[in-house]
Amino acid sequence: MRNTLSLLTIFLFSTTLFSQTLDPIKWKATIEKEADDVYVLYFKATLDKGWHLYSQNEAETDEIAPTPTEFSFDNTTETYELLGETFEPKGIEKYDNIFEMDVKYFEDEVTFSQKIKRIDKNLKAVKAEVFFSVCDDEKCLAPETIEFDLDLSGEATENKGDLSSITAEDQIKSKALNIEVKGKEVFPSEQVEDKSYLNIFILGFLGGLIALLTPCVFPMIPLTVSFFTKGAKDRKKGLFNAILYGFFIFIIYVLLSLPFHLLDSVDPEILNNISTNVTLNIIFFVIFIVFAISFFGYFEITLPASWSNSLDSKANSIGGVVGVFFMALTLALVSFSCTGPILGSLLGGSLSTDGGAMQLSFGMGGFGLALALPFGLFALFPNWLNSLPKSGGWLNTVKVVLGFIEIALAFKFLSNADLVEHWGILKREVFIAIWILTGIGMVLYLFGKIRFPHDGPKQKLGLARKTLGIFTLAFVMYLIPGLTNTAYANLKLLSGFPPPLFYSVYEKEAHGPLGLNAYTDFKEGLKAAKAQNKPIMIDFTGWACVNCRKMEEQVWSDPEIIDILKNEYVLISLYVDDRKKLSEEEKFKYLKPDGKVKNIKTIGDKWATFQTLNFQNNSQPYYVLLDAGMNLLNHTTAYTPDTNEYLEWLKTGLKNFSK
């Protein structure tokens, strides 16, 4: 036994040294005496920022659902009585689009409690265990079980298990899980970078550039720059004021996102709740339709004239830096009828992607920067003003085109509400059909077949209008395969906009993700890979893994990727949260890297241990490319929403396999 423990100690040290597993939750148990023979057991969980723990009361369903937290108490001898159920605090409740149900979870810190009444006066301690899983916005960890020994005297310790209970047979079964992966030094794990802030900033910047081309903003550029450069006492002063004016425009739009930061600090989930609130999504839908009608020229949305007049008078009377600030604020108000709908799109888009206040700030900052740049640049290079096109009917064309875009975006919000309530009125193909009709309307307008109230006299179509019309027609043609039930129905360029592929008018295959042939046992998959002479992709996943479903529906569904997974790889999907019991012969005890003894009782226990033992990682989704000789074919990867990046990762694995 001494030699066995020495070997286990060496194994523990080496595994800990190279471990990259995540441990975002810490548990602590305490016990307090409330009255004679009545005790309260407390279980406190402390979570790292961004991670959450699910409620005990999640609905039982055969569909994808969160892993509920479970408490169990060893009372086989009936020496005490449980008084009521385990209590949990209120927590955070929201609708989850992936789970398609209301979920409840906890962040930062949560304490559960259970009252017991001692029946046997000789009872000294209570054994309890908690089964749980934690997730963040990108991954979930495999479910775990932690055992506690709670002494009625007030002491509580975590039961790590008895090392001496590990038998030779347990060690053999543990060793069998180790597939001795080769090539880790060649292909180290890589982390997927978060590019969401940069993306939303760029989108905001593009929105600002579009706003510059509207009738409310474009004519203001030469007027304002000329005012500063020619109206100042000297050129330096005029240049300074023009640049300051642009800076204030940028700051004003960033400040517009400040209230959302205040809301976020009061309740971190409030913006996420907004994104999934049915009523608010319908309100956004109505607002966007109203914006579209306004852009078509049937009426104009403006803020009260008294606001802009008051600010304008203050700008003229105060002067100096403060006066320039009020001039910038006046521009923001006067141009609202054109910038409002674009800002509304940015606001709605940020909230609907669960990005929160920081993403919104980046988007607003990009929008403000795009609006501000012309004032600074034209002040520095006033001769550029001569190259600006003159105001005219083309500005109204821009507004009408934006109106069609607003209609398309409006149905995204109605789609959110439809998904939440399961109305079934905007299935994926219906949504795409609406976008096709909207695109056809835009094509007819651009080619002069339909007209709106503010359009000028009919004239010969210009090159820009023809080019945009052809581009829009091409986009409509691109959408048409989305109406079919073929491999081309997935529209990669629109990933995340239409409803998911499974929310369809067509019946979908249910075997494996996206109908793929996926092995759920590693040995069976390995046997198939050897027989077919194909590489392996191990998909460490979970029934309750949100981002596993996102990867399957938004990335794997790409025609080229699904073709590779179907024909070039042997797919092995290992579910780390599968609670189906192993047979008695298959069960064993495993020594974890932290020195705890883990009872391998379920299929999920087995595959979660298999993942941490071979790849020093415990998060899902997690993907590994291997050949039948257990050689890595590429670095392992995790949640990768970029389809092109994931496709290149798969192709690199195939190239290395062919060598």
Can you tell me about this structure?
It contains 20 helices and 20 strands. The chain starts with a helix and ends with a helix. The chain has a four-stranded antiparallel sheet, with no helix packed on it. It is an alpha+beta fold and 659 residues long. The N terminus is likely disordered. 47% of the residues lie in helices and 17% in strands. The radius of gyration is 31 Å and the shape is globular.
Compute the CA-based radius of gyration: 31 Å
Class derived from helix and strand content: alpha+beta
How far apart are the first and last residues' alpha carbons, in Å?
Answer: 46 Å
Low-confidence stretches: 1-19, 191-195, 266-273
Strand line-up across the major sheet:
1-2-8-5
Main sheet specs: 4 strands, antiparallel
Spatial shape? globular
Please count the beta strands (DSSP E, at least 2 residues each).
Answer: 20
Please report the number of helical segments. 20
Oligomer: single chain
Mean pLDDT: 77
Helix content: 40-55%
How much of the sequence lies in strands comes to: 15-25%
